[in-house]
Amino acid sequence: GVAGISQSADPNLLFQNLKNLAPQVSRVIVVYNQLTNNWLVELAEIAAKNADIKLEALPAKDLREAAFHYRELLSQLNGESNAIWLLSDKVATDDKVILPMVLEAAWDKHLVVFSSNPAHAKRGALFSLYPDNFALGKRLVKMSEEIDETSQKKRVEPLKDLQVAVNLRTAAHLGLNYSKRQQKEFHL
């Protein structure tokens, strides 16, 4: 019964940036909490098909199950064609347990990791999308005007007003080089 914009990045934009920054990736794995992020994974499945990416989504009901999924994944994954998507999810992406484990294994195995938390890019993820607060405010005003002017159904949509943070050290480690034009598009 409410309308708004989620703080979760639009999967279409995540996968567009992934294809731009790591074009070799053809498979994305995400561990998620079904109670809070099922709706986002459903959108991601559509976005992945549109981006010609195979999405493997693994539900986890608690931190223990998430850690189990990640340990299994990280023992099996290798190569440049795989990526791990870290959601903003306290169950599936704990910063004290999961994040260090994933980033260390990703560095060792040359795996791409991306996120919606700019602190993750600072710590070693290849890139992160985060809110452009000014553009988000403008979008919220527009959304409220649309709802007032029409009998449009109230909805919650993923965040589309985003900026990108890229870890150039991680990119170099993965053998990825970006043109000066590409680098000008990076906000952090």
What does this structure look like?
The chain has helices spanning 11-21, 34-50, 63-76, 98-109, 118-123, 133-149, 168-173, 180-184; strands at 4-9, 27-32, 54-59, 82-86, 112-115, 127-131, 156-159, 162-166. The strands form 2 sheets. Strands 3-2-4-5-6-8 form a 6-stranded mixed sheet, sandwiched between helices. A two-stranded parallel ribbon has the order 1-7. The chain is 47% helix and 22% strand. Helix 3 packs parallel to helix 4. The chain contains 8 helices and 8 strands. The protein has 188 residues and is α/β, with parallel strands linked by helices.
Residue runs with pLDDT of under 50 for 5 or more positions: none
Evaluate the radius of gyration.
Answer: 17 Å
Count of extended strands: 8
Residues in β-strands, percent: 15-25%
Oligomer: single chain
What attributes characterize this protein structure?
six-stranded mixed sheet; alpha/beta; single chain; 22% strand; 188 residues
Quick structural gist:
The protein has 188 residues and is an alpha/beta fold.
